Structures are given as C-alpha cells and as structure tokens.
Amino acid sequence: MVGPVLSPILLILVPLSAAFLIVLLSSVLKQHGPVLAFLALAAEVVMAISIYPAAAAAPIEVVIAGVRAPVGINLIADPLSMLMVLVVVISALLVSLYSFSYIRDEQKSRYSALFLLLVTGAVGMLLTGDIFNLFVFFEILCISSYILVAYHRGGLGLEASIKYLILGSVGSLFILISIGMIYGALGTLNMAHIGANIDLLPEGTRLAAAAFFLVGLGVEAAVFPLNSWLPDAHASAPSSISAVLSGFVIEVALIVMIRVAGSVFQITQVFPVLMVVGVITLLIGEFAANRQPTLKRMLAYSSIGQIGLILFALSVGTPDASSGALLQVINHAAAKSVLFLVAGYYIMRTGSGRIEDYAGLGRKMPVASFLFVLAFLSLIGVPPLLGFFSKFSIITSALSAGTVPSLFMAGLVLVGTVVEVVYFIRVMQVLYSSRQQSVSIESGIPAGALVSILLFSLAFAAGAAILTPLTQAAGSAAAVLF
Amino acid sequence: MRHVVGIVLIAAFIFYVLSLVSGLFIGPDPEAVGPVGRQVLEQSTREAGAVNTVTSVVVFYRGFDTLGEVTVLFLSALGIAVFFRAGGESANRAGTSGPAGNTEECGAPGFILRTGARILYPFFFLFGIYIIVHGHLSPGGGFPGGVIIATGFFVAILTGDRFHLPEGLLTVLEGFAGLSFIGLGLAGLFSPAGSFLANILPLGSFGTIFSAGILPLLYAVVGVKVAAELSGAVGRIYLDPEPVEEQ
C-alpha cells in the first residue's frame, strides 16, 4: 500500500448514507435533495480518485466485521474495479449536475435518493469479493433502475419498466440458482475461494452454474438475445437516467459477467461463443438503430451495438483486446451520455421524440448540437477522438489474435461501423437542414446542464491527449481480467 | 398442441439441468457442510457471542448483506412512494380512502371487529418488540419482528379504521434506522478493530439479553426499518397522506 488511504468501503457507504439522509431529512430539505446528492457524489469522486493510485499499485482488500474471507465478506479494490468505479462515479456526478435543471417535479428528492442507490449498487457490484454480496448489490442496482425508468409515470415508461422488471427478475433468479448450486457443492461464497476450488466441481455442475450466472447477468448486460427490454427502457426513461443506464449500468454488468466467467468459473472455453454472441449483438443493435424514427430508441439500439462490440473485444481473451474494450467503455460512457443528455433537451424543447422534428436544431442550439455531433463521431471512431483509439486497438488486437474466426469477426465489426455512419448521416441531415422548425424554440440549454455535457465531451475529445495514462490504466485493469 | 410441446420441452430442459446437478436436491448431510459452514459453527459463539447461530450469520458474518437487504426493502418502499404519491393522479382511486371502497362492498366493519382490533394493537407491538429483542437468543429477530409490528398496522387498515398515514414519522424512522445501521458499522471502522461492522461492544455473558455486543442493536435497527418500510409501503397504497399544514 502507498501510504494511508481511505477504506474503499466508504465508496459504498457514502452514497448509501446520503440516500438515507435525504429520506430522513425530507421534511427539512424539501426540494433540496439533489444538492445533497450532488455533494455526496462529489465526495465520492474525490475519494475514488484518492484511492485509485494505491489500488493500482496493489489490490486493497477490505475485511468486513473483522472476519477474514472466506468466512466473512470482503471487498477487493484492484485496478479493474477502481477504474470502473471511477467511470461510474464521475458519470454519476456529471449527470446529477445535469439533473438540477432537467428534473423539476416535486419528487426530485426521491429521484436523488434513487439515483444514489443506483450508484451504490453499481459500485458495490464492482468492489465486492463475495458472490452473494454481488447478488445483493445487483438487486439494488436493478430495482433502482426499474423505478427510475418509470419515474415520469407515463404509460410508455410504466410498460417499459414492467417489461424490464419481469426480465430482470428472471435474470436475478437465475443468478440465485447459480449461487445456490455453487454453495451447495463447494460450501463457500467467496469468489477467490470458489475460483481456487473450482476444479472440485463436476464439469456438468460447473458449466450449468456458469450458464445460469451468465444468462442472469446477460439480461442486465443487454447481451443478445436477452436484451429485448433495453430499447423500451432506455428510450422511455428520463434522459438523465437513460444516460446512466446506457453509460455505465450495462457496462458494469458486462464487466462483472466476464470477470466472473474468467476468474471464478474459469470457463474460458466458452469465450469463442461469447465472441460470436458479441458480434451478433453488435450487428443487430446497429441495424435496428438504423431503422428507428425516434432519436432515443436509435441511441438505445446503438448502446446494444456498443455492448456487443465490448463483449466481442473482451472475449477475444487477450490483454490488448480487453484494454481496448475498457477504453471503449470509457469512450461509450462519455459519448453516449452526451448524446442522451442533449437528446433530453431536444425532446423537451420541441416536445417530440421523432428525429424528423429536429430540423434546424443544429443552428438553434449550436454548442450542444456541436457536442452531439462530436460524440457521435467518437462512437463511430473518427480520429483524433478517443473512440478511434479504442476501436482501433480492438480491431488490431482481434487481427493479431490471428485465428480465422477472429479475423472474420473483426470484419463484421467494421460492417457495424459502416451502419453507424449511415444513421449518423441521417441524423445530421435533419439537424443541420435548412427546413424551418414548426415550433419556435425560446431557449437553449440551461448553463448547468451545458457544463455537464461539456465536461463529458472533454473525456472523449481530449482523451487522445491523455491517451498514455488512459491506456496504462486500461492495460493494468485488463491484466486483472486475464 | 403447442402448449403440450412447450411443456414437454420445458420438462426436458429441467430434467437435463437436474441430471447435471444430482447433488443439488439431496438432503442436508451434516458431514457435507462446506468448509465455511463448519468454521462458522465452530467460531460463532466465541466471535459473535450469540446463542442463535442463524443470527450470528445474518447480522455478524453477513451483516453487510443484511445492510444490502434492508436497502432493497428501502428501495421498494421508495418506489411505491414515487408511484402512489399524494394528489395528482390519485383522484381516480375509489373514494377518499382506499379501504373504504373495499369495505363497503363486503359490509362496513362492525363495532366488535373494530374494537377487537384496537385491543389487539398493543399486543402486536409488544410481541414484535419481544421477537426483535430476543433475536440473538431465540428464533426471530429484526426481520420477523418488524413484520409483526407492521402486521398490527395492516390489521388497522383491514378493519377499516380511518386514519391518516403518518408519513413524516415513517420517513424519519426509515432514514434514521438506515443511518444508525451504517453508524454502528462505522463505529467499528474507526475503532481499533478498524473494520466495518466489527463488534466493538463487550460480548457480555453468553445467553443473556445483554450479550453478543452490537448484534442486538443492529437487529433492533433492522426491526425498526422493516416495520417502518412495510407499514409505509402498504399505507401509501391504501391511506390518504397526512394533510399538509399550511403556514
């Protein structure tokens, strides 16, 4: 350890206590819950940044209740989990800044409490070293997402939320079955302990447990064919929530899924299958995105495409490809957040979700639309934006893996990129068309929201400038994975 | 026909899965307790100091999970509060008070039912508190005790007593109980033990009420939280909120 550091458990406790505090003080705070949430998340970012260097040097183990693992529960802060925690907490902080002006109803204190619990769930899933504890945080993450998707209580939101709830609950159940099988056979819940004893399991039990686990987490990670809930949920949630759901929630689930598959179940033999699943997810997502008339559904399908790309890169199974995947996670978290956050104000100002109604918005909201275009370009992978470097390293490492299937798959990934370009151009044509807007737009985007969008854009726009430390961080995180 | 095919396929799949995990449904064999279970059985009285080993596991060894479970409950109550919030769209709910609509259909609650229920409340409360306080000694604890207290509240709703939901009190209790759990845990983190949820109080004499260190305190907090959240969740669906006093 490098000097005294804060205990990583505070990363879980701070948002959780802030959520309890908002509810406790609801009669005093009234409409000021979001301020408290913002402060808590700011503290969270500071803590995560100060813990990261120590965790990158050597994994920090946190013992809970003074009982060492495997009897007790422990947390592990290593380069991978802390990198993802940083992505989560920084995104959450910026989105909560955006929410000040975007969420304006009388329940915003409850919204903030739910938002903090969502962050608690995501951070807990990343840090925990215990498979049942993982399930508990997974439930916290899922349930807060179900509620937030339907936050506006419109018909579409409720429908999407119920769909998400049903599929998500089945997924959770699968995870629980898997945990039950493992505990029944090995008598331990600690992930490292399971990993060390996995050979004691009969091959069938091991594969069955792994399959249940992968399918359960695959629902939340939106892997094909378990992702039918995503377009509805991400499209009808409030835009600030779409940004976090697409920006980090599905990625957290995916990273945890791959991590458990690789280091707990050690079933690297199924990675070629996951690779194919990843490419199918990518192609289906991109082709479906191309056909959407509404912007948020298009963005939601594009998230499916991106998750497919990340899954593909992770299941190539080399450190280089995984480091590219993590760069892509960072790029997608920033770029997709910008897209959803700007889309939120497009919808609010025009009162329509359809792309064709956004004619000329590029001139009415110049700064936001410029950042919107930039974010799209980074998702496609245009240099010198961060997306170029992440996609480039994914493709080159898939090519250098050298097997025939991986060459073929890399080709299909490029096909996905071409489709991305096609629907990007379609959106641009409308945004910058000279056709006049039928509704007049009185105002652009409030300053706070614009600052949040700008800061997100910095991540992928200036990502190339800090590429070396970023690649290093992604590299040391990827080393944990394999 | 399609149904039959579907059922056969599902049955075949289940049979296949079960054949893979033949050990799964074989009854608990004491010799087969895993390494962790054995260690807990050996150490729990010494480390946690509770007679009830189940409580040691729930509150001590896996206390962090329990914090998470309580949070899940908190989330559910919060979700219900979001969807059943006062005013606005609640106008389409039957009558001024939810249960009134139901009770009128099947007859208004009689005098005996109402009076009987009122006599029962203190006993629900007392029994719930007993179950919570003895959680580390006998079967029971915060979760069942909290449910019993909330049941008293449900009986009041079901027998058609009209009252306003004490929403302010419930939210204060929910938040306070959650923070107390974390506070007790943090006391462990900043104590010499240096570990979240570490037992910082003396274990006391084994088998008495004042034993097992912080375990009874944690379970009491869980009990308060469960009672407040279940009452709040059901109350928000069925009862009118307290009228807001204008200043």
How would you explain this protein's 3D organization?
The complex is a heterodimer of chains A (482) and B (247). The longest helix of chain A has 32 residues, at 155-186. Chain A has a domain at 269-482. In chain A, helix 4 runs antiparallel to helix 19, helix 13 (295-316) runs antiparallel to helix 18 and helix 14 crosses helix 20. Helix content of chain A is 76%, strand content 2%. Chain A is an all-alpha fold and 482 residues long. Chain B has a domain at 110-242. Chain B has helices at residues 2-20, 35-47, 53-61, 63-83, 98-105, 111-133, 142-158, 167-189, 215-238. The longest helix of chain B has 24 residues, at 215-238. Chain B starts with a helix and ends in a 9-residue tail after the last helix. Chains A and B meet through helix 1, helix 5, helix 6, helix 7 and helix 9 of A and helix 1, helix 2, helix 4 and helix 8 of B.
Largest sheet of chain A: 2 strands, antiparallel
Please report the number of helical segments of chain A. Answer: 20
> What are the segments of chain A in which pLDDT stays under 50 over at least 5 consecutive residues?
none
The separation of the N and C termini of chain B measures 68 Å
The arrangement of helices and strands of chain B along the chain is HHHHHHHHH
Uncertain segments of chain B of ≥5 residues (pLDDT<50)?
87-104
Largest sheet of chain B: none
Structural class of chain A: mainly alpha
**Global mean pLDDT of chain B:** 79
- The multimeric state of the shown protein is heterodimer
Inertia-based shape of chain B? globular
- Cα separation of the termini of chain A: 23 Å
Number of strands of chain A: 2
Number of strands of chain B: 0
Count of DSSP helices of chain B?
9
Helix amount of chain B: 55-70%
